[in-house]
Please model this.
Amino acid sequence: MKCLRFGARGVMTDRHGLNEKRLAELVPELAAARREVLADADQWAAGTPVPEEKRPLDAGFIDLPDRLLTDFQKDKENSQVGQIMAKADWVAQEFDRVVLLGIGGSYMGARAIFEALCHPYHNELSRARRNNRPRFYFEGNNVDNDSLAGLLDLLEQEAPQPSANRRWMIVVISKSGGTLETAVAFRILLRQLANECGGDPAEIAQRIVPITGPDGRLHNLSEALGCPDVFRIPDGVGGRFSVLAPVGLFPAATMGLDIIQLLDGASAMNRHFRTADPETNCVLQFVGVSHWMEKEGHCPIRILSTWGKRLEAVGLWYDQLLAESLGKEERGATPLTIVNTRDLHSRGQQHQDGRRDKLITNLVVEESNRKPLSVGVSEHDQDALNALADKTLPDILNAAFAGTNQAYWDVDRPTADLILPKLDAFWLGQLFQMLMLATVVEGRLIKINPYGQPGVEMYKRNMNAILRGESSWQPKSPG
Ligand code: PA5
Model:
C-alpha cells in the first residue's frame, strides 16, 4: 500500500532521551488509543446512545471517505459524491467567481486544497487556462469592513449585466448555521446579489449553494430562499474534521480537482491506520514522538515546518485542528506552521538558538509537479551564480533542507520528517486523514476529548450579548 512516511531520526539523540526502546515502551498505550478511536467510529456507526463521558463524539469523519466511495461505486449519479460533482460542474460552467463564506473548519480545508492543488496564480489566469473553472475568494472568516467592501467593489464592477461566464455566486458553509461572521457576510453579499438579480427569487436561489447541518438558521434561510441544492454536513462530523465532507469536497470539485483521488488517499490512510503495526504505523509513530517530546522532552511547541510555498494553508488547517481539539483543560501542545525557506529569515534564528521548547516536524514533498527550473549561465556573473548554473530550484530547496537540519542536529534541536512523495489529490487526502486520526489518537492517549470546542463558545456568547445590549461588562481600565 502506498503510504506517506514519517521518520524521527533527528529526535532520537542522547540529549532528548528518546530512543527506539523508549518509543517501543509507548506502544501499549498507543495501541490502546487506536483501539479506542476505532471503537468510537464503530459506536458512531452503530448509532447507539453515546455514554455521557464520551460526549461530544464526532467520530463520523473516520469512516466517511470509505462510506462516500462505497456509495459512489453503488450509484454514481445519486450518491452524495455524484451530486457534488454534478453541481460543481454546473457551477463551473455558469459562474466565473465563487465567493466561499465560512470560518474555522468551515473554510480552512477548502483553502488548504486551493493553495496546495490549484495553479498558484489560479485567479489571475484566463478562464481557458483555468480549465473553465471559476476564481475563488474566501470571506465570512472575519468581520473586516474594508476587506469585505473591497470584495463588493470587485463583484460590482461586473454588474449590472455580466455575460454568463462573468457572473458570481456564493457557497456559504456553516455547520451550526449560526456563526455570526459567516452569517453577516452572507447577508451583505446576498443584498448585492439580490440587487444584481433585480430581486428575482429564482435567479437569486440558483446563485447560492449552502452547505450546512440538518437544522439551524442557515438551513432555515436556505429553505426560505428556495436554494435548489443544499449539501448536508453529516451528523457526527465536526467542523475541523469536515474537509472530506461536502465542506471541502464541493469546493474542490468546483475547482476541477479529482475528489475521488482525495477520498482514495484518505481511505488508504484508514487502511494503514487500522492494520499497520504500531512500530510502522505512521499515525501512531507521529503521535508517539510528538507526545513523548511534549511530556518528557519539554517541547510543548510543535512547529510544522513546510518546505516550499504550497502547504502553508494545510499547515494553518492543522494548527486549527490541533489547537481546537487538544487545547483544553489547560493542556495541549501549541502548534505553529512555518514556511521555509521564507521563515528561515524570520524565525530561523529562534529555532536554532532560542528556548529549547520546540519539536520541529518537516513537511516535505519529494517531487515537484513542474519541470525543474535551473539557475543557468549568465554573462553577468556579478552574483557569482554561474558556479551553480546546472542547479535547479528543487536542488536548492533540498540543500536548504539538508543544511537546516544539519544545523539543528549539530546543536541538538529535535526534528522529525513527514514525507509526501508528491503534492496531488491522493497524497493530500492521505495527509488530511493522517493528521485528523493523529489528533484524535493523541486526545484519547492524554484523556482529552478531541471533539467539541467549549472554549470558543464563550467569546461567541459575549459578542452576541454585547451586540444585543444584553451585557453590562466593561473592559478593565489600564492600571
Ligand atoms: O472545528 C470547528 O468546529 C470550528 O472551527 C467550526 O468549524 C467553526 O467555529 C465554524 O462553525 P460553523 O461551521 O458552525 O459556522
In short: The pocket of 5-phosphoarabinonic acid is lined by residues 103-106, 174-176, 179, 182, 238-240, 324, 453 (CB under 6 Å). The CA atoms of residues 265 and 379 lie 47 Å apart. The chain has two domains: 5-47+265-374+388-446, 61-261. The first strand starts at residue 5 and ends at 7.
